Amino acid sequence: VNGAYDSCYCHDALLRKKIRPLIPPRGGAQYWPDRYHERNHAAANQRLSSSNDIWKKKVGYHRRSVAEIAIFRCKRLMEDDLSLRDYDVQVGEAMVMVKAVNKMTLLGMSNSIRIA
Q1: Residue 60 has what DSSP assignment?
Q2: Nearest to 39 by CA among 12, 64, 17, 57
Q3: N or C: which end of the chain has fewer CB within 10 A?
Q4: What sign has the CA pseudo-torsion 49, 51, 53, 58?
Q5: pLDDT in tens, the chain (116 residues)
């Protein structure tokens, strides 16, 4: 849902917490007041290239989707939520799940060899 969080409210909430907003602008985005320079930079890139692709590469936005895929794999292969109630024990449970998913990923990866 790219652009769904492209609102002044979301940007203000992130800026209050000193978080750098990496939210792709909606199609045909207009410039906002000066305090939203990150967002205006993304809108400028969108205007120059008619898409958000260049901006996404510049800011490393693709890493977000890599993280989302990793969480999806954990939830898909294991349970959708943590079953234990105590927070410290949930951390351990999550670490075990991640370790198991990493092991399954390594076992399922093919060995590639460069031919040419």
Answers
A1: T
A2: 12
A3: C
A4: positive
A5: 466 777 888 888 988 999 888 888 887 778 888 888 788 888 888 877 877 888 788 888 877 777 788 888 777 777 777 777 888 888 888 888 888 888 888 888 777 788 87
Amino acid at 65: S
Query: Can you tell me which residue has the tokens 């999806």?
Result: 72
Residues with Cβ within 8 Å of residue 94, at least 6 apart in sequence: 82
Return the structure tokens found at 19. Answer: 């978080």
Q: What is the reported pLDDT for 114?
A: 82
**Close Cβ partners of 30 (under 8 Å, ≥ 6 residues apart):** 43
Say which residues have a Cβ less than 8 Å from residue 83's Cβ, sequence separation at least 6.
93
Task: Evaluate whether 46 touches 52 at the Cβ level (below 8 Å).
Answer: yes
CA pair distance 34, 37, nearest whole angstrom: 6
